[in-house]
Amino acid sequence: MKKLNVPKKYNNKKLSTFVFDTFPTINKNSWYKALRKKDVRINGVRINSDCLIFAGDEITLYITDNFLFEENKFNINIIFEDNNILVVYKPESLSVTDSSSSLTSILQNKYGKNIKPCHRIDRNTKGLVLFAKNEMALEILLNKFKNKEIEKHYLAKVYGVPKKVHDILEAYLFKDSKKSLVYISDEPKKNYSKIITEYTVLSSDKEANSSILEINLHTGKTHQIRAHLAHIGFPIIGDGKYGINSVNKAFGYKKQYLYSYLIKFNFKTDSGILNYLKGKEISLDISKL
Fold it and tell me: Of 41, 148, 271, 277, which is most buried with the most CB atoms under 10 A?
């Protein structure tokens, strides 16, 4: 059983819209069966149709977690696992946190509440996410991220061919939470945070006017890679927010070509129970991306 309160953005929307957004892995056959059997209540009243809902309504779902969280639907592959950490492949259209059907929720449903993410990647960014399986490991890893002793590397396919094979970009980013957008400035401004994005060109296709870049984030702000690359004239192909729609259509990409593909454990200080990770790299097979 799950109890949910309807937020303002779903006011006067269909019940199924709210449920499918909240539980993107839900078994839809089970959902409509629950409706027919009146296993759904709104403000304590049983309903059997996909009716309108309003902000503040309390929705009660008598549906088991097995049908709400279908892990296999999102193809969550385990890349590395031991007693302290878990590294999984996160597919697109799944948030790391921020919903009751996030990657974290799915993994906690399988492993228990102790497993927690050590970092995030954007909802539509695919690739590696590191989780701690106990409190001691989490504390150590969060500290290592803070002290820049863990590197996250990304692969992006961009439109254009940079003149520089390698560059370290500096700019300033402002996050507009209401619009779910970020803005980049070359000059410091009020409420803008400094960002540093390093890239290396791995390959280029001049005929298609595209390149594959490896990106190493020195700062980790929301949408930093996507917005920063677009700002310098090399938008990620398939990015519907900061990219170019005509380019995305020409390449046939409906989702952004951006992968979190490599995690490096560059521990410089004692790491307690995680000392064995010093110098270790966990990566995806680039040839299969």
Answer: 277
pLDDT digits (tens, 9 = 90+) for 220-279: 899 999 999 999 999 999 999 999 999 999 999 999 999 999 999 999 999 999 999 999
Q: CA-CA distance, 210 to 157, in Å (whole number)?
A: 7
DSSP reduced 3-state for 145? helix
- Which pair of structure tokens corresponds to residue 80? 């590395």
State the virtual CA torsion across 255, 257, 260, 262 in degrees, nearest 10: 150
CB atoms within 10 A of CB 252: 8
CA-derived radius of gyration, the chain: 21
Domain ranges of the chain: 2-68, 71-148, 153-260
Q: Are 242 and 235 in contact (CB under 8 A)?
A: yes
* CATH code linked to domain 2-68: 3.10.290.10
